[in-house]
Fold these 4 entries.
Entry 1:
Amino acid sequence: MRPNADSEPQRIMVVRCPPLCGPDASPAGPQAARLFERVIGAVTGFCPNVEATELGVCAFGARGPARYFGGEGALASKIIAAVAELSVESRIGVADGMFAALLAARRAEPIDPAEPVLVIPPGGTAGFLAAQPVSVLADQDLAGLLKRLGLLTLGDLAALPASDVASRFGDAGEAVHRLARGLDLRPLAARPPAHDLSVAREFDPPEPLAEPVVFAAKTLAEQLHAGLAARGLTCVRVQVRVTWADGEESSRLWRHDGLLTAAGVADRVRWQLDGRPATPPDGQYAQGGIGMLRLVPDQVVRATGHQLALWGEAMVSDRVARAAMRVQAMLGHEAVLRPVTGGGRNVSEQVSHVPFGEKREPLLAAGPPWPGRIAGAAPGVVYPAAREAEVTDDAGRLVTVTGRCVLSAVPARLVIGPEPPRRITAWAGPWPLSERWWDAVAARRRARFQLATDDGRVWLAVVRDSRWLIEAGYW
Amino acid sequence: MVPGTGVLPALPALRGLLPRGGLARGSVLAVPEFGLLCLALAAGASAAGAWCGIAGVPEAGLAAAVGTGLDVERTLLVPDPGPAWPQVVASLLDGCELVLLRPPVTVPVQVRRRLEAVLRRAGGVLLVAGDWPGAQVHLRVITQRWTGLGDGHGRVRACCAEVTADGRGEAALTRTRWLWLPAEDGGVAVADPVDIPVPDIPATRMQPGLRAVSAG
């Protein structure tokens, strides 16, 4: 039985700050988190119960505040003005239900840049959604499949019977069908759970640095999920409550459709902590450290069978996992990597690195042939960033390569960065490589060489845009 | 995890260089500069089931390491261990039997002593790409002769390297071996004296205009 499963979704207002979210966020990481923390502060002035859906996007139930501030449009204008005072642009969307409101906020700007608010009137959400292309769905694989089946808009999808969609596309299909009809992704669990499912960790003495707290958050998140899973539940939002040593508390709601992995929760704790500027140079917090971290599950729903795959595979022994996680606690999640061999034409692409604890998948699959990759022994030294170099002929002129791969002269000397020049004793090349020529942005043309120098080394050099770069060394 | 014998296995080609035919647990091996030799030293233990941590070497060429026998499934990388690198290495030593480290700075004596104590307690092996005065074994590549590369033609096929090892105690005797590092198949092999390529004779350089080989 699903009580109030298909009841009318709530009016939701979404505030989106394009400069702070998405892959092209202009201030990076901690700086964006800090600004966003202030944006949430400003929005909280209008409605106390604000939840953050991701970095740069927050939402709240609009009914009450709109009535108080004289309508949804008036409220939106006030919020945009308040956020603009922090020199952050924002867009606002209002609609029935979270999904439609998020889309409306994303669409708000193209409609009117001067007044970036898009209000979908009550009851109009289904019509608004029907016109949206399926590519707005988060599940891009499913969106691609729908497109190939001729279902180009959410309206096309919504017109199909729910049972047919569910039987053809399973859980994922059922979920997007609900979204397309303007319903919330998952109905709320009818009753709040009888037990307190929140988890907490006290730090005694207070922890002055962020990293160990983020690390503890990962373990806490696992406990939280385990506790929920034992009751067949999962949660749509997680409340992260940080209590500082001086008694101050910072609390945020983080929403995630689907399920936040332990690493995902840890990221959000990091963003929240980054909102507090630490005092340089020792990176310690002015509030005297963090006394307590509590994770509270919010909007508990029935679990539909998502599994938490914390490890890509089961072969990591406890001993190694403990060691790796201790280093992650010191340096951050991304600091401990596991290599995965894959395919690719360039030496730097053939091994990808995956943070410890995440699923190991190569960037480029090893399966397909990669014509143009250099055959033979692989270089023992592969520079993460190619090093600037100069290759000159006997007369000291720079050796150049034409578009048709003709060399201007025989390479005779190699100078890498500030190092003393080396005499070239043997060389081979140029081997041309033109990748992704169909894509103006990603296209790369390069000529590759192997250069042996008088110190017994062999270098892998490339010429790109008339510049010599050293990519790797064989020794 | 390799069962608790006193040495971690090394690749067969490298056994002749090492005092007990392997990497003695609790010992430090030092190679002055990072290169394929470091990866090959780790490869034997890794292939036998040991976990290998690589700290402070962002440019480790893992494709080449796989060629020598390293198992990337059991490899942890900490490309930038930062200023707290001694703690990072100590933590890695708790989980990995072999840690390859390039210290970011000259290692102070106290730090060296502390890490050596951790190493003895954990029963691992520390492979240092750099200077480590107390190392039990010092290995270095003296000569490298590459085959396959010509004057504008060919490609790198293999390298014949002369490697020496000396050190303290049982390693005091200097050992020298010629190795294919790497061999044509990417692995490591002992070089037969007749195969060792003769050093380059500085040939008269051809003028660019006289080249018969097409540049494409």
Entry 2:
Amino acid sequence: MIEKSWAMDVKKTVEEIQHTYAEFTNLSILIVDSEGRPLVKPSAYHPFFKKLVEADGDTRERFWQEVRHYAGLTRPALCDLWLPGVKFIIAPFQSPARDAVYYVLAGVLIQSGTKDLLEEEVAGSGLYDEGRKLLYDLVLEAEELSDEEAEVWREKIGKLAETAERILRSAYRETYVRDRIADLRGILSTARKERISVGDTFEQFMALSSAADVMGYAQKIAPGEYRIAQVAGEGASGLQDAEFREGEGFLGQAALSDNPMQWTDIQRDPRAFFLKQRGVGEFYGLRCFPVRVGGEQLGILFIVSKKKVQTDALLREFEDTLIVLVGEYIASGTIEARMERQIQRLRPLMEVTRFMISAQNTQRIMFMLVDMSLSLVWNPSSAIIVHESSNGQKVQIVSRGIANDFAEQYARDVAKRVLRESPNSHSVGFELSQTEEGQLMIEYPIVYAGKTRGVLAVSLGSEQEAEECREVLLALATMGSIILQSVHDQQQLGLQNERFLRLMYASAKLGEDDQGKKKDLSLRLLDEYARYGGITTEESVLLQRATMLSLLNDTAKRELSEAFAEELAVLKEHQAMLDTEGQTGTFSFSRYTQILRTVLYFAELDEETASRLHLTGVSPELFNHFRKFMAVRHTVQSEVVLSDGHTAAFNPAEAEERGIDAIVKEFGLSKREKEVLELVVRASSNKDIAAKLFISEHTVKNHLTNIFNKMSVSDRAQAIARVFNRGIG
Amino acid sequence: MTISDQELLKLQMECTVFFENNPYAYETAKGLSKKLGRGVEPLQIVLNRLAAISILEKRGEGNMAIYSYKTPYTQSEVEIH
């Protein structure tokens, strides 16, 4: 293969030199490989080797057997061939690949004074015909030489061997490197079109190298732990997925080094056991190359040589460079895969942003951050978000997968470490910390409004996992910070607007004494009705703002239209509702407007109880519920006045709770019956109760029958009355 | 056609948001498939993943398994000592 790739001019150069030496020494010269095959044409100056090459196979073989007797020569020597006294110079030299011995053969030299004797000896010898003729001619044509002259020719032929070795070696190197570069170019060209598997690069490298019998890549899977992710070579499949630790065997030792490592002649070394016992068998040498990206070690490339191979230093260097390239290829693949995994997570994260932006509530955002972080890491186990409360004196926690007491302890630690000691550190990076229990946590600060307000922490299995998840979690934490900032800004703006509205309301009340009192009563009713459970706190707060706005003049309303658009829309609809008063037909108004209309209607009354049984546009259920609330409120207030002699703060919800507790105790109601009664008192229909308790309406009726029997009442109205009587008693 | 990891993750997030918005929802994979307009098979994978990481609670097995949101531990008044 090597010979084929020789350039013609290299052959010609060697032939020229051979011819020059032949002319100079008057000897026949032939350069052969380790099997006796001529590397170049024999010199034509002296005919012996020309005739030998053209002779029959037996003659050639017989001659070659004679040469073989001298195998093992390391220096040029004068050797007897065929007959004692018929001498040839045999000059060995290393083959270009340094894997065999080639020879320069030169002859014939006949010691002075022996030619006649040899002629007789040859003529009388029993050699077969062609061989005898060749030898006879050889002896006839040979000149007698003195010992000194023979020594000079021996040295000269030795020089020829050295020169031939250098020329062939140089040509071989050039050809080898050129061929490998061509192979490499082919591989790179394919790799540009499609990513080649690591296994394929190993196969290709082993085809290029003379000293690689097994090649593998051990990937770092955890600090100090490696797994063989890819392996190629005969008998090496047992190594696939084998794991080892730093310091364990040769591979484990290589893992501790930042530089390539090499061991040879290690057949009996116990550190080779790991590779031997997994099918590699006996081997001579091992080379290991770290695969790194920046300061991070990704794994180790290793190459096993089963036998000793003499390799040229330059070619060895070329191979090492190739291995480093394979390492770079693996590293780029790892980084690419890592990036791809991160991108795979970043894209859905962008989608989540839409939902998070719509969640204008700190706790909802905290829920999302915890749940999303668990979805974004590879092996999730727990996540916690710690966020300072608005007054900065307490912290809020939302967590999953963490024991409650640990969550609180961790929150205090974060408060001390991050929120108190370095609140102005606006770092957007992450920090790895280890809890006392040995849990590895990756922490991201939640920074907004110029201050660190909290920490999102996710527990991870290893530092490597942290490395792979850090960017995507950073994106999540940053996104969370931005959204929390937006909520914070809106809350601040809302507070300012609210303060301004209250100021304007107070000012407007000065000129509207009677109306002012009624609006104040409306505000109180809305507050109490929320505590009674008739409306939510959010509904109450919005309607209180709408009530205050209703007292302002149109100019003031216009000034505040941007800040209180929703409240003004309710007021506008409320006006439309008033306009339909007395008209017949079907009207549809929002729940907000219906509540506002009802509250303002009751606040306008001189009497504490409404004389009307319905309001146009207000649902009968809502109206009746509020009327009941007003009745209870009135009763309780009267009772309180009578008993205490001063107006105490009334809390219908508390009265209701006290009443139910008393009824449960007095009549022995079951837990389920208590739940049903609580809903009855809040004016829930049988259908509502069934939906809320996940039971059928039929079951609700059964529970009600039992409750009424136990309480000795005939309907829900009596049951409600009894509850409130007990509550205020 | 197999669904990619990225699409599964997208669906996982969509399901998480759905259950966060509807904390009292009790859904089978089939029921949720109608609500979200997504295939039952990928939903099944995603719902089981969410149950495995304790975001959802799973009752029952197979097609009849019911999934509901598991509210995370929340404490809003932790004193800082």
Entry 3:
Amino acid sequence: MTDTREYWRWSERTWHAPDLDWRQAGAVTVGVDVGSVSSQAVILADGRLLAFHSTRTGSSSPDSALRALKGASEPLGLALDDISYAVGTGYGRVNVPFAQRTITEIACHARGANYMAGPSVRTILDMGGQDCKVIRCDERGKVLNFIMNDKCAAGTGRGMEVIADVLSVPIEEIGPRSFEVDEEPPPVSNVCTVFAKSEATSLLRAGWSVNRVLAAYCAAMAQRVAGLIERLGVEREFFITGGIGKNIGVTRRIERLIGVESVRLPADSVLDPQIAGALGAALFAHSLYKKALQEKAGVQEAGSRSGVAGA
Amino acid sequence: MISNYGYEDGSGFYYITIDSDICTCCQDRGCVTACPQGVYVLEVDDYDELVAVVAESRRKRLRELCSPCKGQNGGGGTERHLPCTDACPGGAIRHSW
């Protein structure tokens, strides 16, 4: 019988603040991050976290953006017209139909990480679906410098999905299972997503256990990313965002290689490293909305003053 | 934020680096008019600040557009008298050549 389970499929997630009513809020702002693999929407009510939804990106970026937003907004009875300001970010940011502004995911991840892990964060590693970035920021979450991986999806979220399917291991179990080995194996020589399948199969054929292959793959991914981090340099505190941020098989090995522990979110935190970009976009949306209101008030005040002077 | 705009030619990899935090302090924005090839334009960045960037239409042509100035400069050394860097008193614009 053919195995039809989709091992790569990670759980989509929705969260709503139990004690917050958006109808009482003066501003409802939204950030939507359309990534190459996943899309997230975060809604803020007067700058406080109201809801978020994380879903898989489909073939159409506008549809994915809308799906992410609906996942967060529909259970609250919140319609598009109720949104004061929306910012689009991520790979598909220019295709977010309801966004008033687009901002790069680099700036949004820095701002989101600053909110999630605090102002002491200076180095952020964003491990996305098809790319990987190291970002240096200041205490306000403003980007100072950044570096990206080269044009290759090796060692990113999509690569991990391929490995999950090849080894028939649910993607969320890869991290813990990669530590269930007697000794740490050498990293696989090739983290190329295209060759991952043949490399994993050849290791299994050579007598390696599934967990050992997982450990070797996670180690190779960590090694590749650690090289990128070292090129920019690590300044404490260090925080990891993006989907792979939830895979301890990779994150713990990165920490070991660079010799710096990343900031951990409290166990009872509702925040998810995968929503950092959308959260940053929503925070930008909140600031931009406030700024637009202030400018409007300034123009009205100037208008009324010139009216008085004219009279 | 530090942005790098690069190109590769037969002699190696080269970058124009713009530090937007320094650029925002500049009143003149002389780089836009100083560049004979019109490489720079002003753009609102992610933080709503007006900064100099390499124009989108010029990004893939830096090898050809920057080569005349690079040639005059001798391609290296510490004495750099490029129109764009001379017009940038704060040193926000730097070149790797």
Entry 4:
Amino acid sequence: MRKQTRWMAYLSIVAMLVGSLQSVQAQPVTYRIDPVHSFIIFRVKHLNTGFAYGRFNTFSGTIVVDEKNPANSSIELEIDANSIDTGNSQRDDHLRSPDFFSARQFPKITFKSTRVRKINDTTVEVQGDLTMRGVTRPITARVTLTGKGRNQRGQEIIGFETTFTIRRSQFNINYGLNGGLADEVRVTFAVEGIRQ
Amino acid sequence: MSVVIESMLTAGLAALAAGVLWLLGWRLRRAHALLSALGVSVGFAVLYWRVQGRPDFPPIDATQWVFWHALFALPIGWLAGIAPAYRWVWVWGALLGVLWLFVPPFRPLMESGFWSLTAGVGYIVGFALATWLLMTLTAPLGEERGIATPLLMALLGGVSAGVLFYGAKSASLAQLSGTLGAVIGIGVPLAFLSGFTVGRGAIALTMLLYLSLWTTAFGFAQLTLGQLAVLYLLALTPAMRLLPALQRQSPVVRFALPLAIVLVVGGAAVGISYSAYMAQGGDYYSY
């Protein structure tokens, strides 16, 4: 009888532990964007002929993932406008100038999500405010979960990718719109986050 | 429409607007001081609108203050026209007015941390003093007859466009500077009309707008302090014609000397900026 009581006690402790672990998993998890394994690239059509590609090399941010209630998920991103890199230093200087990003006055490009909606198990729709050159506009992007795992340090990591198109004229970046460079800019954001 | 044709159309429209107002001022002598400045003000506003689009007010993008300078500085241009009769009003009114104009465009650079507060205040006061001095020294040229002054000032626009294009790496500021040269350049054909003068206000306001463009390129693009200083010294060149030593010379010498300086020094400044541009990275980038 005494043995049976002891086993019951053990089982209830294990059950409590499992239960508390499950509740920990259900909490929103914060990931810090790993800049080494994340990329922000863009493309824009030049002279209505070929696509010019570029990237931003310096950025930071956090992603909060709530698997149980995706509406509680969020993302914040801050990009250093001066870190623009198109593989040509003269063009990069021009892009930093007042013709484009005016990076001395507006050194940061920011994104802050305002709403996250689950589409399916691997896709969410993220709405948020993109601020560039002092102008804030709402954008919507479909974000796909690309994987989960652990890095070499044993840290939990998660990957997402999204591609969306913006009109640069909406952010007062109007240089060369009359045939030089297209208004539409396609942006791809591929991110890897490290659990905090 | 190609960029070249569009630029020419823009310059033509802006010059036409300025020219009509100057002709009106030439006929209506009592309104000459105001219409002289108004010609530049309207001409520059037209060209800015066509090159850059409609600016915000107050501007989010600080480089848009250049447009508002053309309008807000109109009283200063008018004051330059009547300055000989109201010397102290010019000294204090114009100086404080220019200082007031230079604060809003450069405040964001201090807020973003690109300039420290001390450096920012120093630059703003320095720009204002330099602009006021340039306006004071060159405004009397507006009373001279002949093509010399409008031609020299139009060339200044061309030279500064080259330096801003290759040195500051801003095509739009270069285009604004070059087309401002075209606006003042309309004074060249008008100078063949008997007794025509562009007026003190037109010269003073054009100089203020050149300085507004150049200091914007220094603050927000990549114009160096050295390049800014060279452009400033070139802007002083037309005033050489008023030096007593040069006034004793023949009209040909009075015209040829500042012209040679603008062409040689200005040409060298554009050439050096171009070489530095081409040397950077060794790879060619066409806008």
